[in-house]
Amino acid sequence: MNPRMPAEWAEHDACLMAWPTRPALWGPAFEAAKQEYAAVARAISAFEPVLMIAAPGLAEEARAACGTGSGAGTGTGIEVIELPIDDSWLRDSGPVFAHDEHGARVGIDFRFNAWGEKHYPWTADDKLASLLLDRLGTPRVHSSMILEGGAITVDGEGTLITTEQCLLHPNRNPRMSRAEIEDELGRRLGIEKVIWLPYGGLEDTETDGHVDGVAAYVGPAKVVVSLPEDPAHPDHARMRANLAVLEASTDARGRALEIVPLPQTTYGEVAGTRVEVGYLNFYLANGGCVVPVGGTPQDDAALAVLAAALPGRTVVGVPTPVLAYGGGGVHCITQQLPKEARA
Length: 343
Known about the structure:
- The protein has 343 residues and is of the alpha/beta class.
- It has a single domain (12-338), classed as L-arginine/glycine Amidinotransferase, Chain A, CATH 3.75.10.10.
- It has helices at residues 23-26, 30-45, 59-66, 90-93, 114-117, 123-136, 164-167, 178-189, 236-247, 298-309, 321-326; strands at residues 12-18, 50-54, 78-82, 96-99, 105-111, 140-146, 153-154, 159-163, 193-197, 215-219, 222-226, 258-262, 266-270, 273-277, 283-285, 288-293, 314-319, 335-338.
- The strands form six sheets. Strands 3-2-1-18 form a four-stranded mixed beta sheet. Strands 4-5-6 form a three-stranded mixed beta sheet, with helices on both faces.
- The longest helix is centred in the first third of the chain and has 16 residues, at 30-45.
């Protein structure tokens, strides 16, 4: 088997999500987190079906909050199923999907250790990929490497972008060298070239700097990059170091990268905590792009940058300051289920 992970802009059969289930993470914002998850699910359901995974006993709560979805009656509604879960960041705890050499969909089951053992327990989340693939009837490919989906972005043509800050962190795979990590990404995801950015977000202590907070493939040889314009921003210099790497890089096919700077940043306050709402943590749905926004004046300009970078897609902002408070955004709580590519 020679699987290859398709790009996020390839057509999906559905979007996978998981319902909030760890009250200790959210504290006083737990109920508000559920409302934001439901709002994201409804926004995505206007473009493609959503399959929401709820912990046993919570399916009815999730159905009541999410409703039938914006696309109900058109084949793009919201379905809720129950499986054991510890947390609700499915991009990271769920499977990563790829196509085998015949175009059939397979699920890569990487190990999960709660972002370097930051939250207990994580046993159910580590087992989730296997249970979900069985429920979906999708063949499972096991990997012993710890990897979260938010740590990578791919072009579907053999190139992967990640951050050294995350993938080389000693709390993930301390016994694997950079070369061994690249080899495993090649074997499991069809990656021929890895572009290593030095930095994720400085304040992204939850994930140790996932790439989906700083850079995202949006088309062949086309990458949107966080580039805060405020010199006082903690990532002002760090993101320019990332930019320099991308400007000097070519992809697996030898192409220089078209780089789209995203200079806007915004902040909100949740439960007395100042949080950055990351515009770059968006999800590419079928014909759409669902973007976390903060309800601030900067939102419109950021959405305009993304709309210009994504012609033919409808760009939709969803207020998600509570997701930022929990440590992520729209991309972090979603995972695309690519359509099978068989002839």
